[in-house]
Amino acid sequence: MPTYDYVCDACDHQFEAFESIKADPQTLCPACSKTSLRRKIGPGAAILFKGTGFYQTDYRSDSYKKAAKADSSSASSSGGDSAKPAASSSSSSGGGGSA
Length: 99
Prior knowledge:
Blueprint: E1 3-8, E2 14-18, E3 37-39, H1 62-98
């Protein structure tokens, strides 16, 4: 459930309310008891999606980050040179096929 910011136009009282998304906005000010309360437009809180099926790069564990760092450092020292000729050969064969 999100937190909403409210402000009273009559007495300038401001507060936060933890409400359901489906709940109607409050209209009665708790400070002056007038019905001049309105919901402020704000950035809101971030929604975190955790679990399977979301972006692979989000919310990675520390063990995954360490393994990925070790793989990238070993690949750049030994496999980085072998990747360049493979990329150049595929680009040259792609150019020859279209001509």
